[in-house]
Amino acid sequence: MVMSTENKGGEGNRLPEKEWTFSEILAQPRILERWQKVKKWFFLRESTYDMTNRCNIRCDGCYYYEGDKQFAQENRDPEAWRKLMQTEKARGITFVVLAGAEPSLVPDLCEVCHQEMPLGAIATNGLIFIPDSIQYRIHISVWGSDETSLNIRKAKNMLRRQIENYRNDPRAVFVYTFTRENIDQARNVAEILAADGCRLTFNMFSAPMGYDGSLRHTADSLKECRKAMLGLLEKYPGHLLFSPYSAVAHTHTSGLHELFSCPYPRMNPSTAIGLGRSFRQYRTDLSWNRSAACCVPDTDCRDCRHYAAGSAVVTARMFRHATDPDSFKAWLDYVDTYLAVWVMGYEKGPNLSDNPIAPPGHGLF
Ligand code: SF4
Ligand code: SF4
Asked: Which of 48, 260, 296 to mutate to test the pocket of ligand 2 (most atoms within 8 A of CB)?
């Protein structure tokens, strides 16, 4: 996640009917209001941290257990984590994402991170409750109906158990990951979550390196996902943290890197500004490796449509969208969505764009 800038006039800009200046775009009151709301968060600078190499379940297609990060030794000393967080703060990090494999297995380490770094999010399968004292956003992964979860994640009654843990918890956002096989199930899952007053957002299965299994998306499944997302957005606007442009960006036949140029160090050799300079992905032994660093390491970049990746890849491309009011509104919706998904206390506003628009320099699909 980074609210950053790029050089104006980057390649691939769409050609608007007229040349808009930024002040002309901001002259529209709804745009100006949303711009002022989101720009307060431009200070966010993220890094991510693997907290433990253990997980209480084992899902097919899990990217954590790809590559060699799973073999790093665990550092379980809270004081070592405290020192790491202090050093991170000193080098300008303001937002932490605690992930791989299952952070709820090490609540004491999560607690220390929160004490030192007040803003952050935790990615969890939601089967173990994370103590209230850790006021981070909690992202609970949902991969389909309970029957599908049993097949792919080998866990029984998963959604019911996740809801029991996190119903009415203001930290919680359920993250439904669309695979090629669970598109229809999203409707039922959204209905259950909305009935229980839970908020959700969408993720796209992004294949780990070398994965060619049945969860990987095709052009047809991407189209189906977009249709399902837009339909659910219309049906559950109060529960679904998403926007029409989020649906386009994440279901396009081109992945996020091809559409927007990924700024994470793995794909971005520049160490001068933005994520290329600041982002690190720490392993459980507190080491990090620039050449492997992104929020979803060991994901195949050509297939990357991951929601966590999008939070930086799309938001960093502000100038490409500041070409006309419609493009800028779509970008603002995307940013407003991602802030609501990732930042405690940030509330999403109504989307400014009703219809999907194409990413700069690309078609709609
Ligand atoms: S819950 Fe997450 S970390 Fe654990 S196996 Fe499943 S995908 Fe991997
Ligand atoms: S996997 Fe995604 S976020 Fe990571 S470097 Fe590749 S394109 Fe970027």
From this structure: 296
C-alpha distances out from residue 323 to 42, 56, 326, 353, Å = 20, 47, 9, 15
Torsional sign, CA 247, 253, 255, 261: negative
Ranges in the chain, pLDDT < 50: 2-5, 7-13
Output the CA 82–ligand 2 centroid distance in Å: 28
E strand spans, 179-303: 200-204, 281-282
Cβ–Cβ < 8 Å for 352, 359? no
Distance CA 359, CA 249 (A): 7
Q: State how far the Cα of 342 lies from the Cα of 99, in Å rounded to an integer.
A: 13
Q: Which of 152, 292, 304 is closest to 214 using CA atoms?
A: 152
**Residues 97, 359, 235: CA angle, nearest 5 degrees:** 70
User: How far is the C-alpha of 271 from the C-alpha of 293, rounded, in Å?
Assistant: 12
Cα–Cα nearest to 337, from 247, 235, 223: 247
How high is the pLDDT of residue 78?
Answer: 98
User: What pLDDT shows up at residue 121?
Assistant: 98
8 A C-beta contact, residue 240 and residue 200: yes
Pocket of ligand 1 (CB under 6 A): 55, 57-59, 62, 64, 100-102, 125, 153
- Tell me the chain's radius of gyration from C-alpha atoms: 19
CA distance 283 to 326: 41
Residue 293 is predicted with a pLDDT of 82
Domain boundaries 22-342, CATH class: alpha beta
**Using CA atoms, how far apart are residues 189 and 359, in angstroms rounded to an integer?**
29
Instruction: Among 209, 262, 289, 317, say which to mutate for ligand 2: greatest number of ligand atoms within 8 Å of CB.
Output: 262
Ligand nearest to the CA of 304: 2
